[in-house]
Amino acid sequence: MADQLSVAVLGTGVMGAAMARNLCRAALDVRVWNRTHARAQPLAADGARVAATPAEAVTGADVVLTML
């Protein structure tokens, strides 16, 4: 959707995961990446797209949040 804000969240530890979930609940296009892929994977159930690399997560994103 062209009018939907796209947000990339790099780092899905305690704070990053909570922020990503809230962004998903707000119906935003959320992409997540974490150094340990298994930490980001549960966010897919909330509607986030899990990226394999930081570059994949941020490509085309309107906003990038780093929680490193």
Shape: globular
Alpha-beta classification: alpha/beta
Enumerate the spans where pLDDT stays under 50 for 5 or more consecutive residues. Answer: none
What's the order of the H and E elements? EHEHEHE
Say what oligomer this is: single chain
Helix content: 25-40%
Q: Beta-strand level of the residues, as a percent range?
A: 15-25%
- Biggest sheet overview: 4 strands, parallel
Give the overall average pLDDT. 96
The strands making up the biggest β-sheet line up spatially as 3-2-1-4
Number of strands: 4
Specify the number of helices: 3
Question: Rounded to an integer, what's the Rg over CA atoms?
Answer: 10 Å
The N- and C-terminal alpha carbons lie at a distance of: 29 Å
List the SSEs and their pairings.
Elements: E1 6-10, H1 14-25, E2 29-33, H2 37-40, E3 49-50, H3 54-58, E4 63-66
Parallel strand pairs: 1-2, 1-4, 2-3
Description:
With 68 residues, this protein is α/β, with parallel strands linked by helices. Helix content is 31%, strand content 24%. It has three helices and four strands, in the order βαβαβαβ. The chain has a four-stranded parallel β-sheet with strand order 3-2-1-4. The chain is globular and about 30 Å long.
What's the short story on this structure?
The protein has 68 residues and is α/β, with parallel strands linked by helices. Helices cover 31% and strands 24% of the residues.
Question: What key attributes describe this structure?
Answer:
68 residues; 4-stranded parallel β-sheet; globular
